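Reopening this one. Same input as before:
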Amino acid sequence: MELPPHFILLVFSLNALVSFLCALYLYLGTPRVGNEVSCSVRCFTFCFLMNFLTFLALGARPYVGTLVSVSLVQVCLVLYMFSLLAGMMLRKGIYPWKILCDWRLLLCALAYLFFQIYCFTYVNDQLSVRSVTIFLCISCVYAFCMKLTRKQPHVTSRGERIMMVSLMLCLCSGLLLVLFSVLHFFVDRADFILTNVFFFAVSIFSLYGGLNSMLFDDQASLHREASITDPLTGLFNRRFFYEQATSVISQANRQDYNLSLMICDLDLFKQVNDSHGHMAGDKVIVAFADLLNASKRQEDILARFGGEEFVLLLPNTTLEGAKRLAERFREAAENSEVIYEGKPIRITASFGVTICNPPSVDNSIRQADEALYKAKALGRNRVVAFVPQQ
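Same output, byte for byte:
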């Protein structure tokens, strides 16, 4: 049974319309934070636009001729695969162009185009062979994209899980078509064309759903991260410190383990700003934050409280242990220097430490602040501990 040209045009036009709407909504409706995310969204939008052009070229085959239609379809499919890979790589922070422009990959793409356009048109004109080759190549791309979905090695977000399910659905639809073709499942050409269109439609909807969920989840994670971190140093901010400290202190109360708190402050920081400028001051703050972050334990909670002041909550740490850690921080700061415009800037810091006994956030911060002020009054560049009254 031969399908009438107007029916073919209608079916392919509907799929083209869906692809175009997916591209439009993905481009206009996806929030973007950062250049990498924006480039990734553009790549995914281009991916759906290539789907749109593919269906247009398929629907126009009775009017433009087989060779023109096949050539347009195959070029669009190659660009579809490349743009999908590029978007997944950019999202993960991988610069894709050196990989995608590798001569071996380009040679494979050219070989694919040669077989699809020339061999499967003039040498062996079988629709089933052409479709099986297309879906096998696209399935390889989907399988590779599944490996790129997870941003963090051991953490999978909800959006990433949805994207992996969507890619798996795309992969299964392609492999099912290959299996049906090998087993000669199709009675005639009309069945085969309609099944191809169905599997392409499944891929479009599932891929769009997966990408949309993944990108929105990424944006939510970025906004969450921005709300809990200090933009200059990348450390936790004051608000998030209080959230975490409340939880840790509650756990320390239940499990009855030692908990200490440390507050540190750069000495004579105003002189750095007055002598070298605020840009130098920012660089000093970042350098000191990096020093603290590199030396703390994984379970310690470090936050920038404001200006040049930092606070650390130290689980399972006695007062003596906190004093020893603060002394290491003090010596590291004293022995370091920050280079700004070729000039060294020497820094020192003062530290106040206290044991949380009984543990509480505000009371412990007040006690550590008293110890810090005492360290400043005694000449700075020293560690002072607040010993609570028994």
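So the earlier flakiness isn't reproducible anymore. For the record, DSSP finds 14 helices and seven strands in the chain.
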